[in-house]
Automatic annotation (TrEMBL):
Pfam families in the cross-refs: Aldedh
Recorded family membership: Belongs to the aldehyde dehydrogenase family.
Protein name: aldehyde dehydrogenase (NAD(+))
Keywords: NAD, Oxidoreductase
Keyword NAD: yes
Classification via InterPro entries: Ald_DH/histidinol_DH, Ald_DH_C, Ald_DH_CS_GLU, Ald_DH_N, Aldehyde_DH_dom, ALDH7A1-like
């Protein structure tokens, strides 16, 4: 771990910017990054003052005037080189992500792989930023649409995916011709520094203008400035529903664009026709991966009454086998929560479950003793609940899994949809009719609906996002690139007359 910290921490202390990348001067206060693994101080990172922020925004705006003129395939080649640099640094960066955030080592490496994957996607996209052609109702006219970059794209990311979500936005935004300003979570500042340190080596070789990518470390005040700033054409924000509502209202007040990826309260329906072994794997990984701190974490299991007792027993046995501890140990399944505040929220949820009539079915609570000195380790737990348990309407960012019994598929879908959030969902069944009903207009109301896989682990090829209080935004694959560009419809008259649309006849005397 020392080699990893030595490599990436040096940039957290220096006074200058990265090569080809503008970031704040060292005038603001410092953020101390403590690992939830062992409470060790990893690094101190300087935050941006308001003056720093304004200087960076101006630098980004200036860089946009140049970057937008680079051909998209050339921009794509820069992203290709970044992917190669990430491949070379995958284990080092993945280990840093695991240590600073607390997710398991394989999940840390997997997050870097997501960055590589979205780079590969963006490279292909650089030659496919296509519009449409339309037939005109007027003779000797041609209509078509094209897409242009927006300008400065602001990216606000959360601690649970400290590098991947930035890349989902930044790689697509950059290849589309935009420049970016990134405010990472103040809980994982070093991982952000490391990403731009790697990117800077690519930018330097290719003489990319300073200001194409920018980093502003800081608290929520920086995010508020970004949301209110008319110089930022699009604000892409990932985090809680509460944060997203604040960002959305501020951006809307200036008629700006925003892309929101907010809370999830995801469920798996397990029918009487499910492969229970398959369902068990999907449910357990979905519930305990990243210690329950994914927006796509499985928080509810809606289980048919015919297999409820059998499946819950399998689930309890699986939970007894979970290894909790240092996420850098490959044998560990569950690492720590991000900080002790998250532990308090977990403990408060356990109290609420019992006060509201639920029942804790497995060992639960905060862990202490050797290996747990940071105070951030908890036991993933299972709770039996009725569908009207109030605490289930909330997203508790911790490994608490609710199990609910149902009789009919219609009832199960109603339970699943009966929460304010609408990100990810899944059904486990070998029955074709059940699968199709779940995917139909009468089924899941979520942005993601899976059959025979869990709620987490989305691939970058599909558009990622959800409905209702999840925000409605879409990132990553498919045609999500359109969110980072502006559409322009153009009509060309190649004739000698000027006929008007809708058959309007308009003549001037002497014309």
């Amino acid at each position: 771990m020392e080699a990893v910290l030595d490599q990436f921490a040096i940039r957290a202390h220096n006074n200058g910017g990265f090569d080809g990348i503008a970031h704040q001067l060292t005038k603001g206060q410092e953020i101390s990054s403590f690992s939830p693994v062992d409470a060790r101080l990893i690094a101190k990172v300087t935050t941006a003052t308001q003056a720093d922020y304004q200087a960076i925004i101006q630098k980004a705006a200036d860089a946009f005037l140049i970057w937008r003129t680079w051909p998209a395939p050339k921009r794509g080649d820069i992203i290709r080189q970044f992917a190669e640099a990430l491949r070379a640094q995958k284990q080092m960066l993945g280990k840093l992500v695991s240590y600073e955030m607390g997710k398991s080592l394989v999940e840390g490496a997997g997050e870097v792989q997501e960055m590589i994957d979205i780079c590969d996607f963006a490279v292909g996209l650089s030659r496919q930023l296509h519009g449409l052609t339309m037939h005109s109702e007027r003779p000797s006219h041609r209509m078509y649409e094209q897409w242009h970059p927006l300008g400065v794209v602001g990216i606000i990311t959360a601690f649970n995916f400290p590098v991947a979500v930035w890349s989902w936005n930044a790689m697509i935004a950059l290849v589309a011709g935009n420049v970016t300003v990134w405010k990472p979570s103040e809980k994982t500042p070093l991982a952000a520094q490391a990403c731009l340190q790697i990117l800077s080596t690519v930018f330097k070789v290719n003489q990319v203008p300073a200001g194409v990518c920018n980093l502003v470390q800081g608290s929520g005040e920086i995010g508020q400035m970004m949301a209110a700033d008319p110089a930022i054409s699009l604000v892409s924000a990932t985090g809680s529903t509460r944060m997203g509502m604040s960002v959305g209202q501020t951006v809307a007040a200036r008629l700006g664009k925003c892309l929101l990826e907010l809370g999830g309260n995801n469920a798996i329906i397990i029918t009487q026709n499910a492969n229970l072994d398959l369902a068990l794997t999907g449910a357990v990984f979905g519930a305990v991966g990243t210690a329950g701190q994914r927006c796509t974490t499985t928080r509810r299991l809606i289980i048919h009454e015919a297999v409820y007792e059998q499946f819950v027993e399998k689930l309890k046995k699986a939970y007894e086998q979970l290894v909790i501890g240092n996420p850098l140990d490959p044998k560990v399944h569950v690492g720590p929560l991000i900080d002790q505040q998250a532990v308090l929220q977990y403990e408060a949820a356990l109290v609420a479950i019992e006060n509201q009539g639920g029942q804790i079915l497995s060992k639960a609570g905060k862990l202490s003793g050797d290996g747990f000195e940071s105070g951030c380790y908890v036991r993933p737990c299972i709770a039996a609940a009725n569908s009207d348990l109030a605490i289930m309407q909330q997203e508790t960012f911790a490994p608490i899994l609710y199990v609910i019994k149902y009789k009919t598929l219609q009832e199960a879908i109603q339970i699943q949809n009966g929460v304010p959030q609408g990100l990810s969902s899944a059904i486990m069944t070998d029955n074709l009719k059940e699968a199709e009903q779940f995917l139909s207009v009468l089924g899941s109301d979520c942005g993601i609906a899976n059959v025979n896989i869990g709620t987490s682990g989305a691939e970058i090829g599909g558009a990622f996002g959800g409905e209702k209080q999840t925000g409605g935004g879409r990132e990553s694959g498919s045609d999500a690139w359109k969110a980072y560009m502006r559409r322009q419809t153009s009509t060309i008259n190649y004739g000698d007359d000027l006929p008007l649309a809708q058959g309007i006849d308009f003549h001037l005397d002497g014309a």
